[in-house]
Structures are given as C-alpha cells and as structure tokens.
Fold this sequence. Notes:
Strands 1-2-7-4 form a 4-stranded mixed sheet. The protein is globular, with a radius of gyration of 21 Å. The chain has helices at residues 18-27, 58-67, 76-86, 95-105, 111-116, 118-133, 141-158, 166-178, 185-188, 198-202, 204-223, 232-238, 250-280, 283-297, 311-323, 355-359, 378-382, 402-419, and strands spanning 42-47, 50-55, 139-140, 329-333, 338-340, 343-345, 350-354, 420-424, 430-433, 437-440, 444-449. The relative contact order is 0.19. The protein is built from 18 helices and 11 strands. It has one domain (18-267, 321-395): CATH 1.10.630.10. It is an alpha+beta fold.
Amino acid sequence: MDAFIPPTVEAPTEPLGVLASLRAVRRNALTVLPSISFTQPIVSGTTGLGRWHMVQGPEGLRHIFLDNVDNYPKSEVMIRMLRSAVGESLFTSEGARWRWQRRAIAPVFASRNVHALAPMMTQTAERATARLAAADGPVEIVREMLSATFDVICEVALSGREHFDAEEYGAAIIKYFVTVGRASLMDFLDLPHWIPRPGEIRGRSAVRTMHRMVAQAIEARRQSNPGQLDDLLDHMLKAEDPETGRKMSPTDLLHNMQFFIVAGHETTALALAWSLFLLSHDQEAQAHAHEEARTVLGERAASADDLPRAPYIEQTLQEAMRLYPPVGLLARNVLAPNELYGREIRTRDTVFLNIFALHRHEMYWNAPNAFDPENFAPDRVAERDRFQYLPFGAGPRICVGANFAMMQAQIILMTLLARFRFTPAGPLPKPVMHMTIRPDPGVTLDLVAA
C-alpha cells in the first residue's frame, strides 16, 4: 500500500516582497516558507529594510535553543502578538522574571504530579467517547477534541470549568488568533510596538472575554478555598521567588492562567485531530493502532498505566506532530553578532526557527511529506539528532507541560481508537498557521463502533 501524502502548503520558489509577504502571512504564515528552506539548513534574505534568517538545521537550532540561548530572545513582533492576552507570563518573559515563574510553575508538571492527574484524563476520554457515540452523522473532530482537552486543562488549572463557557471561550481564542495574532504592515515597517496595530484594536473584545472568565475563576478561588485543591492556581497563589520573596500579583496570575488554559488545550486538541485525520486516510495504520488499543483496553478507557503497552499509538501522535507541529515557526531577536553555518548573524537581524521545514526536510527525513508512524520506532529515534524533531521546543525553555500534553493525548487517542473506526467524510483540510497550525476547514470524519 502506498504511503498517504497528506496536504501541505505550496512553497514559493522566488523571494516575496514586503506587501506579498504581508498578504501571505495574514492568510497563512506557512506560505512564506521558501522552497529552499526544505533542502538547506539556513536561508537568509531581506524584506524591506529588515534582514532575516530561517534556520531549520538541527545544529543551528541546538545553538539557538541551547548553546547560545541568551543571545536569541523572543522577537518583539512575536511578543507583541501575545502581550495583550498573556502579558509578561512564563511564555513571554525573559531573564530573572522568566526564571522565577518557571521555578514556581514547573513542580505542577513534574512526572509524579502528571501521573496523579491521569484519572481525570481517563474520565475526559470516557466523556469524549460518549459524545462521539451519540453523534448522528459525520463529526467535526477539531471541535470535539477542543472540548475534551478543555475539560482536562480546566480541572488541572482550576479544579473545574464552571466559570467557563467553552464555546464562547473557544470563539474568543480563534478571533484573537486572526486579529492580534496576525502580522501587520506596521511590523514589517518596524514601527514601535507601543503603537496599536489595527488587529489589536479589533481583537480587544476577544481579550476581554477570555480575561473575564479567567478572572472570575481566580476570584471565586480567593473567596472560597484557597490553598486546598492542589491545582495549578493554588501553586501560583503560593509561588514565591526564593531570591526576592516576590509573589504573583493579580495580573501575573491572570496572564499565566490565561496562557496555560489556551496553550494547554489548543495544541493537544490539534495533535489529536491531525492524528485521527491521518489515520482515517491510512486504514492499515489505523487497523494496527486499533488492534493495539483493543488488545490492551477491551471496552474500557485508557489509563496512564496502559500507555507503555501502546507504543504505536504514541508513534502516531509523534508523527502527526512532525507533519503538523503545534507551532510551525518561531521568531527570535539577535542581541550580539554571531555565526551560523558560516553565515554572519548581525545584531537586529530576525532569526526564524523553522520547525515546519525542519520536520519535512529532505536532508533529514526519508519521504518527508509522507505519513509514516515508523519514523518514531525506537531504532529510528536512536539514530536521529535530538534537535531534528522539536514539537515542544528545546533547551531551558522547552514546554513545561510537554509530558502532561503527551499523556493526555495518548489516553484520549488510545480510548477512541479502541472504540471506533474512522473514515474521511469531508474535504481534505489544509494546514493554516496564524499562531498554531489548524486544519482548514476542519476535520470531518465518519465513525462506527469497532
């Protein structure tokens, strides 16, 4: 059987000018990635007055993420797109401010704590299964997976979702991504970031909606049982900088909770949706995954203890995140002159970390655009550069919730594959990136009880 080649984007073969780049980024950021970035470790160019480099070689990414990380802080454009929603939270802050927030939050996602959270993930998988079983006709999978992962992150962060309307909150996230989260001509012209972009103005109502729900949840905790539930909010309320004694202000709490709720469910839901889409188009791979899940689970939902017995399902998730990483492109500023692949990197250049091209690169992968879970068989992983596959980033700023996200995704996917068989029922979705890589127009599947 021929390997399934899922949809991707058509890469431009010629450099794009300022206006063409802006139009492309606003439609789909992946469409600005030049074709040469899938065959070379670094690509450099200029757009208007700005000089840039796209890095997609493992050695260069290791240098930026790990060896010389302090020289490459997040770019001002990237921070501008996030600041109104998450302020100077763990994701956007730098230096000492980042370090103390990381120390405060990391214990919540320690391995023992993540394992203790698995029962609520199992319950969520059971609820998602019940919703799918009750569906009459084709199902839009992205929406279903967003609901499932939203359940989990609200339990972990706030011990419940009673202050959230999932539909309203989800709509606000999407509106934010396509307004504030899009590049502006003012960014390309390098105008000061304190000048509001048109998208920021249009996205203010989305920010207010998200902040209102999170603030209500925080205030309800302050009024009821602070320090008694051992969830993420309690850890943040108790967090203290060991060097200064500083605690999180109400604004710090709001912004960090906002970041974790959005990031904690959006990226996992997309990994699940892309996985089910890929398996629906490769019935042989789906049969393998179904047999593995069914042998371990029978009719019950998966638990954390089941996961080591389902390696192929983990490989499927990893392959889905190779083809469709949650975030395909990151941007960094340059503080001091440097060199990558013999190329001069100057102060004030912009460096793009091209994860999408890294994961589909012709130098590093056999059949890079084909769906093949065997890419993550143990022998292949062992012979691969650690920086060749980076769905969660790397180095000191690797995603603090990576283990949590993988456990959640495996439990849900394993449960669904044991219960159902999936087949395509809608148009092939295209990968579209504003902040995350979403399938457009969604993933619509038929399902039958297995």
